[in-house]
Fold this sequence. Notes:
By secondary structure, this protein is mainly alpha-helical. The chain has 15 helices and six strands.
Amino acid sequence: MKTTLFGSVVFLFLISCSQKQGIEAFWPAEKAPERIAGKVIADFFTRGDFWIYQTNEFYSIHYAEACAAMGIARMAGLLNDRATLEKLSERYRRVLTDSLPITGNHVDANVYGILPLELYRQTGEEPFREQGIALADEQWENPLPNGLTRQTRFWIDDIWMIGSLQTQAYRVTGNPVYIERAALELAAYVEKLQQANGLFFHGPEAPLFWGRGNGWVAAGLAEVLSELPEQNEHYPTLKNAYKKMMDALLAYQAENGMWLQLIDHKEAWEETSSTAMFGYALSLGVQSHILEGKQYQKAIQKAWLALVPYLNDEGKITEVCVGTGQQNNVGYYLDRPRVTGDFHGQAPLLWFAWSLLKE
């Protein structure tokens, strides 16, 4: 009996419990979101110069770096960590002072704007606001006759790339034109790309349910719905699409809490960036009361507890799929290289951690 009681006391000591907006979370101390985020943030500041994304069409700091840095800004703001915010701001002030260009009016370039807008939200530095709003407005220069941005290409990634930027601009300005743009765009993407089972094909040339591609969708829908007024004409469409997708993800979540490189292929490997994105999307949905029920809370808890062991001692997440183009070939996806510490994985891990701590 003494051994049992001692074990129970130790177990309770190691468990931290918090209740945030309906999410009841029980984390072993070594898997606490704040601690994990701290390791990822420390690793970020060991990196060298900017990750530059350059093609024949555009030049920019890579969107994955911007996503990771936005996650750091959010977490530092939540924890009132002014030292980290200043260190982060100092890094990205160089984009302005050294006149590093964001060129090409391309969906993968303009999304950089989510970072300066978040830095403005946390620091109040006007140059960050100006840069972010300029990129959000450029996204809608000379729109298509149907009102969509000319950056529209109906790749599932764009649901985040467009939706998150316009939502950030709405958060900063309060101008409804930005959230209305996001809703219009996402409604068009949902109508064209969502499948009967609730998931999204990677693209027209790839009728397969790639994990991280669907992660961009899930995160983008959750991000927009977290701000979209219920009175918006597109709200029912986006809410229904989001709930349908979240329920599909519950059905495909592995028993240990992970999701797979190809979501519906049991022979696929467990992939971390998609798992973090799905956990983040579910978490935002529970907090906004769009998702109600213990099954969502359970899925979130399982995902976090399964994901954290993939973080190595250096603060780098393992088993991240490399950037992946579209192919109608199952083997192509199953054989994709797996990398460690890539910002495609670091970023959503930070988002997920933040979502578990926010009020």
